[in-house]
Amino acid sequence: MAEQTPATESADTQGEDQAQQPIVINAQYTKDLSFEAPTAPGIFGIMQQKQPDIAINVNVGVNPFEDNVFEVILETSVRCTVGDDVGFVLELEYAGLFTVNVEEENQGPMLLIECPRLLFPFARNIISEVTRDGGFPPLMLGPVDFVGMYKQRIEEFQQQQDGETGSVDS
Question: Can you list the alpha helix ranges (DSSP code H) found in 21-145?
Fold first, then answer.
């Protein structure tokens, strides 16, 4: 009778643990990154005299990959202006490949709240480094309310559904 070695037991246990975890990060990666500073170097002098305005937009996208595996994309765009001059424009799509082991009715919150929460610190770091490397002060994003974003998405979906059912002739 063959005995299992401790290494084999450990690998089997690790595989079982991974199957039981609600979220498993299979990979994370920069899907798309763009940085432009169209008015550099002149903008640096202007920024010494005027405070820049920074507009930040964050969105989350989900693409099914296979079975319980999904690609979650954290899309962030940043636009820095000083008056009418554009300091920089930064667009980042930072993504992760996640195995989600939860009931189907719980997948939405996991994919649109928990997965982006796991990706956010890495995206924040990339944005900080890219703005710094572009000659600007490092931009440190504050916390993002992924729960609020999810609730807003649900409300918009419900309003769409109400609008569609309200326009149906009986």
Answer: 42-49, 107-109, 115-133
Q: Could you give the CA distance from residue 129 to residue 61 in angstroms, rounded to a whole number? A: 24
Which of 168, 170, 77 lies closest to 131 in space, CA to CA?
77
Rounded average pLDDT over 148-156:
93
Q: Contact 97/69 with Cβ under 8 angstroms?
A: yes
Please tell me the pTM assigned to this model.
0.83
Exposure class string for 59-85: b at 16+ Cβ within 10 A, else e: ebebeeeeeeebbbbbbbebebbbeee
Q: What is the pLDDT of residue 19?
A: 58
Q: What is the pLDDT of residue 55?
A: 98
When pLDDT is averaged across residues 97-113 and rounded to a whole number, the result is 96
Q: Determine contact, residues 88/131, Cβ cutoff 8 Å.
A: yes
Q: Which domains does the chain have, with CATH numbers?
A: 22-155 (3.10.420.10)
